Amino acid sequence: MNGLPDPEWYEVLTDFNDNRNDFLEDRFEEILENKDDDEADELREQFGTRYDNRRSASQHRKNALTTVMGAFLNRHGDNGSIYQQTGWEFRELEPFEMDDELEADILLAKPEEGKTLLVLLLPKRESPDTVVQKSKEAVEGVENNLSIFGYQTDRDEIHSAIVVNPSRDEETNRAIDAEGGAYKQEIFVWRVFDVEDGSDDDQERKKLDYYADLDSQLQQTGPNMHLLDVLEDEVTIQRDRGILPDFFITSHHSIYLEHIVGHVVQRREDKDDGPLTHFSREEIVDYIEDTLFERGVSEEASDKTDHLLERWEQMEAITGIKDRRNDIDGTKFYRFTVNGKLSQDNVIEAVTDNYLEQTSEFYIEVEAMREALDDYRDEYGEQSTLRELASSGS
Amino acid sequence: MEIFGVGDRTFESRSSFHSYLSENHDDIVQGNLYICAGITEHSEEEFIDVIESEGWERTESFGHIDSIETEYGDGAAKAYLSFDHDRGLFFLYTDQRKSEEIDKALLKLLKNGDGLHYLYIGPRIIRDLCDGVRNEWESSKVTTFIAKRTPGTEIGARKRPDTNRTINYYGDDGMEALDEVEREYGVLPHTVELHIPAELRFRVNKEGVFTLKQGSMSVLFGYMNSCISQTFAMKEEYDETDFKVLKVGNGYDVPESKPATIELSHSLSTQELKEARETINNSDYTMLDVYLDESSRTLSAKVFDSDENLFFNLRISSTKLRVFPREESEMEVFLRFFEFVQTEIDDKAEPQQNAEPALLEGA
Fold it and tell me: What is the C-alpha separation between B241 and B362, in angstroms, rounded?
């Protein structure tokens, strides 16, 4: 499995640290100091809104992903599952993660029959046109490499489904009609419902259905119809059970922080091997790797850990500990920058309470670093970084 | 202080122990006889292992009844144990001091022992018990009560309904006073003392401690039955939960769990969901990754119970609260959270399981 691409802020931060010199540091401080209060407040508000939107979108996505996954899990003895009725099963999350060009959220398949269905979620704030475009590209991508998922897909058996809230079904169908081109018959709209409790049974009332508004789709015949027939009847998909992911690899960093600090304080109490605030890099890599559903994600877990630790260190939410003063397993140690004598609950609260504000300040600093780097290059041209100099043996 | 003795008798059942206590109560028991009711997910052998890990030991066996004790002060805290294998219930009998050996040793064991919990008796159950006794015995009285108004109460109050309050009452007209303070001050009983002249005088509190002051054990046990059903139903609800890791698809391990469900007495609005979030946030529980989806009126979170050092997942919809166990769930986490929900969110909340009344042998 490939590692994760570096986020943009990470590149700026690394670039700044690699080139760190008096000019850059002075310029960075100057830029920050020159921001008047109004400008800084405006940036804080802008970054705060972005934080809220992204966090909420990330949670919405987790909810939707687990709902659809749950519908297609091969559960033994659960006779009502869509898998049992149709043979379509959940295969993989983010099946194109090896490919920078293609996107899909979930791979459903009947490998023995060469059938592939790529599921994409319609994000809260994204246009259906964009997701239809991604669906087309995903189907086309499989057409161009029929064995991409480790089994042979039949060229005529590649479909895509866009999962939406019911309020966006018509809009999405219109987008498929307008933008789907040659693939519009291969792209479906699936709706996820939360139905009010207390009606005819005691189960979780979450349902999935197939929303077919286009005459062409309704008239469609073919091997996939059974699945669509099943979905047209509104299938209850969460049979009072829940899948419990703490996060997915793409989850918002604030979600990671909350679960990680919870994990750390629980583990310290369990193992009694150090203060509640202390942890090792290796522990976080292991926790992320264990929490992601997929096997063989150690490189991604390692990259994700580095991105998070780098961010939190810059934000001063954590700090590195040079000397090992505990019995925690690992070789590289950190601690949360809160009082280690607090109770577990208070450590969690102290670490997470001002995270939004810290994040806004972090992005303001990253922007200042970017500007300082631009000024530096305008002044001195492109320079070799300290890292490059070191690797060239100079 | 020593516990009452039973000589070298052997009891073939809990009933025979109760008969002995009823017949000899005045002679052998010093003051009050306390019965602490508890609930467990363990077998009797595992139960003994747990109490041993808490510093208690089984000292003697009297047939179906055992004696247990632990060091306490200069002496020992002692109790007789009766274990109900079928229902996971147990009873500890003692006549030692309530504010010493009982509160500081016996109840501590019930609160701290892994897989044990005191038998929580909700205020509405205690209220129903009073009504039941009044309907059955015209001459019955409530002579003492401690009643509270808690944030999760669903009852109205004529006087300053936003005030949380506690009322301690002593008087032979307690039955009537209970009605009056409920109406005026919106309080429900957490402890009551009931007196049925010539039959029974006993006290019960919400931690499942029954105090027999006078009368027959078997009559008391009849009333205990009516108090047990709700907590027993919550344990049944917990028994139905599970956690497993599904191996699916292309090498995925998916953790999945079946929740225990608590039904709320009314549908929560989005504003009430937000209030529930605040209530939990301001409690001893810590919520992580809280997601309030206003479109579906659901709130989900991972909840940390620092007393047990355990997490569970929580999902609150408009009418139900679902508690999803994670890998190392424990019964007492659920029971305590249920008590929290009744106290802080909805005092009419009930476990979804409609357990049959737990008719106790020994009544």
Answer: 30
Would you call A290 exposed, middle or buried from its count of C-beta atoms within 10 A (0-12, 13-18, 19+)?
middle
CB B32 within 8 A of CB B95: yes
Cα dihedral value B337, B343, B344, B349, nearest 10:
70
Token pair of A317 as six digits: 């939410």
Query: What is d(CA A195, CA B318) in angstroms, rounded to the nearest whole number?
Result: 10
pLDDT tens, position by position, B254-271: 888 889 999 999 899 999
Contact assignment for B289 to A258 by CB distance below 8 Å: yes
**From CA A337, how far away is CA A177, in angstroms rounded?**
53
pLDDT at A394: 44
CA separation, residue A317 to residues A304, A321, A352, A363 (Å): 17, 13, 9, 14
Task: Report yes or no: A88 at the B interface, CB cutoff 8 Å.
Answer: no
Amino acid in the structure at residue A163: V
Judging by DSSP bridges, how do beta strands A106-110 and A115-121 pair with one another? antiparallel
Of A210, A181, A207, the closest CA to residue A193 belongs to A207
State the burial class of residue B162 (Cβ atoms within 10 Å of its Cβ: 0-12, 13-18, 19+).
exposed
Please measure the distance between the N-terminal and C-terminal CA atoms of chain B and give it in whole angstroms. 29
Distance, CA of B5 to CA of A62 (rounded, Å):
61
Average pLDDT, chain A: 85
Domain chopping of chain B, boundaries: 123-205, 238-351
Q: Which 3 state secondary structure label does DSSP give A174?
A: helix
How many Å apart are CA A27 and CA A23, to the nearest integer? 6
Determine the distance in angstroms separating the CA of A240 from the nearest CA of chain B, rounded to an integer.
7
Sign of CA dihedral B125, B127, B130, B136: negative
φ and ψ at residue A297, rounded to 5 degrees: -115, 25
Can you point out the beta strands (E) in chain A? Answer: 89-93, 106-110, 115-121, 158-164, 187-194, 206-211, 235-236, 242-243, 278-280, 318-321, 333-336
Q: Which of B253, B286, B291 sits opposite A59 (nearest CB)?
A: B291
- For residue B8, CA distances in Å to A75, A115, B60, B63, B135 come to 56, 76, 10, 10, 41
Task: Give the right CATH number for B238-351 from 3.30.310, 3.40.1350, 3.40.462, 1.10.3470.
Answer: 3.30.310
Identify which has the larger pLDDT, B291 or B255: B291
What ipTM was predicted for this assembly? 0.86
Other C-beta atoms closer than 10 Å to the C-beta of B208 total: 24
Which of the four pLDDT bands, split at 50, 70 and 90, describes residue A196? Answer: low
Between CA B292 and CA B290 the distance in angstroms is: 7
Q: Any residues with CB less than 8 A from the CB of A73 and at least 6 apart, and which?
A: A81, A83, A89, A90, A243, B246, B248, B254, B256
Secondary structure (3-state) at B132 = helix
Tokens 């209060």 sit on residue: A37
Q: With the C-alpha atoms ordered A253, A256, A258, A264, is the resulting torsion angle positive or negative?
A: negative
Q: How far apart are the first and last CA of chain A?
A: 34
Separation in Å, CA A119 to CA A104, A122, A186, A203: 6, 10, 12, 25
Tokens of A323: 């000397």
Contacts of B289 in chain A (CB under 8 A): 59, 246-247, 255, 258-259
pLDDT of residue A77: 46
Q: Is B60 on the interface with A (CB under 8 A)?
A: no
Helix (H, G, I), strand (E, B) or coil at B345: coil
Question: pTM of the entire structure?
Answer: 0.87
Chain B positions touching A244 (Cβ under 8 A) are 255-257, 313, 324, 326
A206 versus A291: which is more confidently predicted? A291
Tell me the DSSP string of B217-280: HHHHHHHHHHHHHHHHHHHHHHHT-EEEEEEETTTEEEEEEE-EEEE-SSPPPHHHHHHHHHHH
